[in-house]
Amino acid sequence: MKPSDAARPGNDRVVVVLAAMPRELHPLVRRLGLRAATAGGMRAWRGDGVVAAAVGVGPDRAGSGTARVLEEVPARRVIVTGVAGAVGPTLKVGDLVHPATVVDTRSATVRTPSAPSTVGSRVGLLATVGRVHLEGSVRRGTRGRDGSDELPEGTTAVDMETAAIAAASEAKGVPWDVVRAVSDVAGTLTPEIASLLRPDGRADAAATARVLVRNPRLLGPLVRLGLDTARATRVATAAVISELATAGVRPASRRRG
What we know:
There is one protein chain. By secondary structure, the chain is of the alpha/beta class. It has a single domain, classed as Nucleoside phosphorylase domain (Rossmann fold, 3-Layer(aba) Sandwich), CATH 3.40.50.1580. The protein has helices at 26-32, 59-72, 162-171, 191-194, 205-214, 219-245, 252-255, and strands at 14-19, 35-39, 42-47, 50-54, 75-86, 96-97, 101-104, 109-111, 125-128, 132-135, 138-140, 155-159, 176-184. The strands form two sheets. Strands 1, 2, 3, 4, 5, 6, 7, 8, 9, 12 and 13 form an eleven-stranded mixed β-sheet that branches. Strands 10-11 form a two-stranded antiparallel sheet. A hairpin with a 4-residue loop joins strand 7 (101-104) and strand 8 (109-111). Helix 2 packs parallel to helix 3. The two termini are 28 Å apart.
């Protein structure tokens, strides 16, 4: 793979699809028949008119990763995708998250998606937080008085990257939108389950094995979380496919012939 493969000089501007983790992009890569590449030193895939890249988990990694991708790739728009956690009772697993506003809870900065969308109406508030945190029904965050986040009133879902990706996109003058899907609801990520997640969002296999020996009853919730995450990723991928279709980017099977 050549580092510059994602953005060779002379290429037209492309749609850039960004997610935190490669697994959030794998269904899209398969559907579009994208080929492996790199972009800004990040793991990426490219095809006709589109580049997809995994920019890392958490606002700091995602923000710096996005900046590097956009420094190299001539983007005409950015689509943020992946999974999100529901806050409160309005969303359930598999529901699409297409927010009207995005808030960075570290700075209280409010951002509004600026790219045109065919997914449907933008609804709700997506809060970007800094780390997984569990307290009652509000499960994630960083900067309340006790060290946790104080989510803005009206928050419907949370993630750990969108606001940072949006900031980096706006700094480059690139319009952006976000289409995620709910992978977990309040109470799903118990402290014991959350402790098994690495900083990149993957489960720590060794730690998981040790915990399951002590508490075999966790196997069911862990399997369910994996299945729900896969379901959410498929929903988000379908929304991204719809967005890309308006830009002339279609699944590989439809492009043949």
